[in-house]
Design goal:
649 residues, alpha/beta, 2 domains, 24 helices, 45% helix
Length: 649
């Protein structure tokens, strides 16, 4: 080590300064609170990378060493800048699993530039270490290391690697210990918090290339006794006759074996007063681009206001962001939690989602259709729609462009008007829409024609331009929902049709302060920013049915299956029927969560109970285990095509 420090090259010091400075700044910007132990872990895990970079840089003569050094420091800085912007936009850090998920990445150009403008000062702060190094450019020395020094450096590198393994041993059985994050759990934000961004990036690349499967941990039951039948109380459960114990005994694959054991020991959700409430009715399900409760106004969006305050009214519903629209779509249509690795498997392996609405309504003999007023293959929907049972899927460039304008931004009103005649003549229909009029960027002159179209309607709104433009874009969606109702009524189908609307995510290109300009209460940027409306409405419902239980997008599918009286095994879906007695839980990308008893913030490890609620000492730990397992189960179901294996349909 002494030989390295005393060598004529000073790149080791510069790499150390750059990387540790970036790690500290990045942690402060992301997590706000930094513990000493996490700083120590980050230092220990960063030093082998720093040593290796310094050795590689100084293996060559001065000219080549300079090129390697400056390319390295620019790429490293870019990594931190890119990850920060990506996180601020999508509430997750970038994984190499994401490559290819959005095959029209250029469409995000305006959004990225807007994010750079919104977060200029954090970006400047992350750029400061690089700027300092460039100002010291004349003092940087490059000398080719002689053979003894190279050997000494390699030995030091190996010692530092060994130190990382030693550091992982204390408390390694804990859920989010350094050991668990390194070997068992794919929780990127947790890994960055404890081990650093460079280590997470290295793990991500390794897992993408060689594969990685999370392990189920001892399950928390949240104080519930496992039951599948309660004849004494005459309670029925949403279960099938699957013998999970037998499946586990006959399974040689360890992953599937543990998964079957888990299903067999978990609680199903109960049938309830609303089981079969809409049986036999038609369904129109809209995944609404950027829709959030802050857009609901009696004056400006009267149709959305009417539907949000009538029918089923969910007072504690969340639309968590998991990588833009594709994450929201996955949650709402599968009842599972998406990560970038899970989304990659969904699009690549194309497993059958047996309980999806498309498949279930196809089995009931309904006319099943899906429509999207943008490029039909975006997010590889030309593949994933089939996994959901939508064999008849039409979007721009596979037929819809012949009937309406597909120029950016298209109008959802046009989408509704040209498509409703395609299914309202059927006796029974189920239609899935993915809207687009509410898409960012939100402005009146830089790419949002829907905001411009409705600019006059929001001229008196006492908010800044971006929130005002956001509401204007949602006015177009409101008009589309009104057109849907009018068209259904004209076809004589309104009374027999259920309309379901959930947002894909909150309008994440607005800052939290801009969202709070429209919000009726102050929202934080981690949990409450995701609070929204779930609309489940039928014209014949006489009065609103208010539900206070916590729910989120993953709960939409099982809730609808129960409402339409469709048989399913609730143990096989991570989300749960919101109308059942199953404890409510909303899970967010950074593994924060909201339950019926309170809110847990993963970064600060702080649990805030609801007023008047007390929990036992094991509650938070059990819930963290439950959340971790929900991520793991979702990945194993998709990655192993589990529905096909179990249900065989």
């Amino acid at each position: 080590m002494k030989k390295i420090l005393n060598s004529k090259s000073n790149t080791l010091y510069l790499y150390t300064f750059l990387i540790l400075s970036l790690e500290l700044i990045f942690k402060a910007l992301m997590f706000h609170e930094i513990s000493f132990i996490n700083i120590l872990y980050t230092f220990i895990f960063s030093m082998p990378i720093i040593m290796l970079l310094s050795l590689i840089t100084n293996l060559f003569r001065e000219k080549i060493s300079k090129i390697i050094f400056y390319i390295s420091i620019f790429l490293i800085t870019f990594l931190y800048l890119f990850q920060y912007i990506f996180y601020r936009l999508f509430s997750v850090t970038f994984s190499f699993n994401t490559l290819g998920l959005a095959n029209q990445a250029a469409d995000f150009t305006n959004i990225i530039f807007e994010a750079i403008k919104n977060y200029f000062f954090p970006i400047l702060l992350l750029s400061t270490p690089l700027i300092i190094i460039m100002l010291l450019k004349r003092t940087i020395r490059f000398y080719k290391l002689i053979r003894p020094v190279r050997i000494t450096g390699l030995v030091v590198f190996l010692i530092l690697v060994l130190l990382t393994f030693i550091a992982m041993q204390p408390g390694k059985e804990k859920l989010y210990s350094a050991h668990s994050l390194y070997y068992k759990v794919n929780a990127p934000e947790k890994t960055i918090e404890k081990l650093g961004l460079l280590t997470q990036t290295r793990l991500d690349i390794k897992r993408v290339i060689f594969g990685f499967e999370e392990k189920l941990v001892v399950r928390g039951t949240n104080g519930m006794k496992v039951v599948v039948d309660d004849k004494e109380k005459k309670i029925k459960y949403n279960v099938s006759e699957i013998d999970f114990n037998q499946l586990a005994q006959n399974e040689s694959n360890k992953t599937l074996k543990s998964l079957y054991e888990y299903f067999g020991s978990t609680n199903p959700s109960n049938q309830n007063d609303y089981t079969g409430y809409f049986k036999g009715k038609n369904l129109v399900f809209i995944l609404a681009e950027g829709f959030n409760s802050i857009a609901v106004s009696e004056e400006l969006t009267p149709t959305l206001y009417k539907l949000s305050n009538n029918g089923f009214v969910f007072n504690n519903y969340y639309s968590p962001v998991f990588l833009s629209t594709t994450g929201g779509e996955f949650q709402a249509t599968t009842g599972l939690i998406p990560t970038q690795a899970i989304l990659k498997d969904w699009k690549g392996k194309q497993p059958k989602i047996s309980y999806s609405l498309g498949h279930q309504f196809n089995q009931l003999g309904y006319d099943v259709n899906a429509f999207h007023d943008w490029t039909y293959s975006y997010y590889e929907r030309n593949k994933t729609m089939k996994t959901l049972g939508y064999e008849k899927y039409t979007g721009c460039h596979n037929g819809l462009e012949k009937e309406m304008s597909c120029k950016w931004l298209p109008s959802d009103v046009d989408l509704i008007n040209v498509t409703t005649p395609k299914y309202t003549s059927s006796d029974h229909f189920m239609t899935f829409y993915i809207s687009v009029s509410g898409h960012a960027p939100y402005n009146f002159g830089g790419g949002n024609s829907m905001s411009v179209r409705n600019k006059n309607a929001v001229k008196d709104l006492k908010v800044s331009e971006k929130p005002k433009a956001y509401v204007a874009s949602q006015i177009e969606f409101d008009k589309a929902v009104k057109a849907l109702i009018d068209n259904l009524e004209a076809a004589g189908k309104l009374d027999d049709t259920v309309i379901v609307i959930t947002g894909d995510h909150y309008p994440y290109t607005l800052t939290t302060d801009e969202i709070n300009e429209l919000s009726s209460y102050k929202r934080d940027g981690i949990v409450e920013v995701n609070r929204s409306n779930l609309i489940i409405w039928n014209n014949k419902m006489e009065k609103p049915i208010k539900i206070d239980k916590v729910g989120s997008q993953i709960d939409v599918l099982p809730t609808l299956l129960n409402l339409f009286g469709i048989d399913y095994d609730s143990r096989l879906i991570v989300g749960k029927d919101i109308l059942s007695d199953y404890p409510g839980l909303a899970v967010f990308s950074n593994r924060s969560w909201v339950s019926d008893k309170g809110t847990y913030f993963a970064y600060s490890k702080k649990f805030v109970p609801r007023d008047g609620v007390e929990v036992d000492k094991d509650y938070v730990n059990n819930m963290n285990i439950e959340v971790a397992n929900r991520f793991t189960i979702s990945g194993q179901i998709i990655g192993n095509n589990v529905y096909q294996k179990i249900l065989g349909d």
